[in-house]
Amino acid sequence: MPNANIFNDLLKKLDIGVTEFERKIGVGPSAIAKAIIRNSRIKEETIVKVLETFPEVNENWLRNGIGEILLSNKPNSVSTIKKRIIQDKSIDPVPVFDVDFTAGFIEMHPSNPNIIGYVDLPQFRGCDAIVTCRNNSMSDVINPNDWVGIRRIMDKNDIEFGGIYGIVTVNFRLFKYLKESEKTNYILVESENKQYKPRHIHIDDLIEIWVVQVTAPASMIKMYL
Fold first, then answer.
1. What backbone torsions phi and psi does residue 117 show, to the nearest 5 degrees?
2. Which of 67, 74, 143, 189 is deepest in the core (most CB within 10 A)?
3. pLDDT tens profile 180-200
């Protein structure tokens, strides 16, 4: 494993401060700063977090000091990592979709070409699909880059208010708490991160509803690849 002093070059190249870097990759305050000062060895889990958060970083440089710091393409992206999943359908695995819940609309049917692999892990059994999270509105319940196992809800009357759901409208694809609204035929949508204000969405605007069954950090999933 490389020593932490290489982060000095990486931070300059990314034009980011160490505090913001620590926050983005999800390590404790001053964890990287202290590692740089001590020039300690970089842990494998830290390398994984860096590559997942900053896919433009050259993995060969980060691990071995070989090549340029940044790449013009992004081979370390989560989508590329997912493609290394063994696609064994013999045990009824859960499909992994190359979509995330932030914005935009993509129907997720089993025949959809956006299926990029299959997972058979105990944590995800019983789910209809696995997708990723791409913002921090539900942190620390669902964090950026987490893999999320979801199950389709076909009847809107089956919504259990107070639970976490993935909702799809024409303009948005979001993970949120769904709660009862005082407005008739509306649902109150709330985030875990209180900087995002609650919103009222008309029940008829919900094109798809997926109940969140399980979440797992991408670093844990990579151990199985």
1. 175, 180
2. 189
3. 999 999 999 999 988 888 999
